[in-house]
Amino acid sequence: MVVTLFALVLLYNWINTGDYRPLFPNMPESEKSEAFDLLSGSAFPARLDSRTGDILVPADRYYEARMMLASSGFADPSSAQSMNMLDDQSSLTSSQFMEEARYRAATENELAKSIVQISSIKTARVHLAAPRQSSYVRNRVPAKASVVVVGHPGRIVTQAHVQSITSLVSSSVPYLAVEDVSVVDQQGNLLTMSMSPGLKMADMQSTYKRSIESDYKARIEQLLAPIVGIENVNSDVDASIDFSEFETTSEVFDEAGRGPISRSEVLSVDRSRGGSNVGGIPGAQSNIAPNDTAINNTNDEAIDPIEQPSLQTSEPTSTRTTRNYELDRSIKYSKDAVGNITRLSIAVVINQKVLDGVAGEDVDGEETPRIGALNVEQLTELVKSSVGFDEARGDQVLVIGSPFMEATVIEEITTPWFENSSIQFIAQMIGIVIAFALTLLFVVRPVLANMLKKNDGPSS
């Protein structure tokens, strides 16, 4: 009888040790006590883990427990409270310090909720150090922030995610610069290590180079996959990219070679007309009228004004020409594009069996050529056309055939039959039935037999 009772106790403990999972990991002790009291008051089978102290609930009733706590007004501690906490906790007797502390806590919770929306972030906590700002600009103290992130298992918090987090936090808090935001992961690694502008530029250039190479690699493999099969081709691309930045300003004169062009011309002519004007040296002789010989003289020789003071046959003329010439002039401003590809080196390896046209077996078991023998030169020209091969640029494309190693077949890991949850449930039911039968046979039956014997003894 004692052995039977001991077996029943062991069976009960075995049945109650089903699959349990933590309800809320890393829950504060005060909230843990409240949640456990709510579950116990509702007769829910919850218990405490002796090692971690977490609340454990049956795995198949996990969401039922969460819904039960939510209906009782208990919120998930991992979901940060929002700005509504300011309305719930506001009071006329609250000091300014408490109001600022609540506002800061609400801002931290809102930022944490926004950061958790990133696919690779599981949980996040934000700590803000925002001192009270002065009315004078020179006395203002910059704010600072710290963010602790926990990534999902199997996912990586990339540098792009870190930059997004720092930009999000700095844009949400006044007087908070991006460089004053620190991001730390669950291992204590500082993800926002300060980098010089040169290193940041080098990192961006390296990322751009890898993206270009990946694009060409995918283009080549997508082109050759329908011909040889995706498992029979492998490629590698190395791109030389010029990240030099040039700005050129040039001034060109007479680019068409037409020479100087007259822009404007001004012609000025001054003439003084007169016949037999009185002239000569002032005096009595200058007032004497000229004789007929002097008037009819048609000789071009100059006449001395002293001898003939009254003869004036000259006609003074003044001519001025002003021309302005201009040359054809053009000013050009050019800025070269950054990230130009200066050289491509491409290597493609194709399975030699495919190049040789190895025969395969069809449905009827007859050997038929799976693919015809391929010409390496044709494949090379095909690859050159797909990547925009430029011989003047120094591009190189190499296509070779080589035997590929056979892929190792990984055997599927099967779960033992006795670890199947369905079989374990059936075994538990069978154990309950057997325990009930043993209880009736070895406990209830002897007790009833003794009671019957005691009752039959006095009567006899």
TrEMBL record:
GO terms for cellular component: bacterial-type flagellum basal body, MS ring; plasma membrane. Residues 284-300, 309-322 have a biased composition (Polar residues). GO terms for molecular function: cytoskeletal motor activity. The chain crosses the membrane at residues 425-444. The keyword Membrane applies. Keywords: Bacterial flagellum, Cell membrane, Membrane, Transmembrane, Transmembrane helix. It comes from the Bacteria. The keyword Membrane applies. Residues 224-404 form the Flagellar M-ring C-terminal domain. GO terms for biological process: bacterial-type flagellum-dependent cell motility. Residues 17-192 form the Flagellar M-ring N-terminal domain. Residues 268-322 are annotated as: Disordered. It is found in: Bacterial flagellum basal body; Cell membrane. It is a multi-pass membrane protein. The M ring may be actively involved in energy transduction. PANTHER family: FLAGELLAR M-RING PROTEIN. The basal body constitutes a major portion of the flagellar organelle and consists of four rings (L,P,S, and M) mounted on a central rod. The M ring is integral to the inner membrane of the cell and may be connected to the flagellar rod via the S ring. The S (supramembrane ring) lies just distal to the M ring. The L and P rings lie in the outer membrane and the periplasmic space, respectively. Belongs to the FliF family. This is Flagellar M-ring protein.
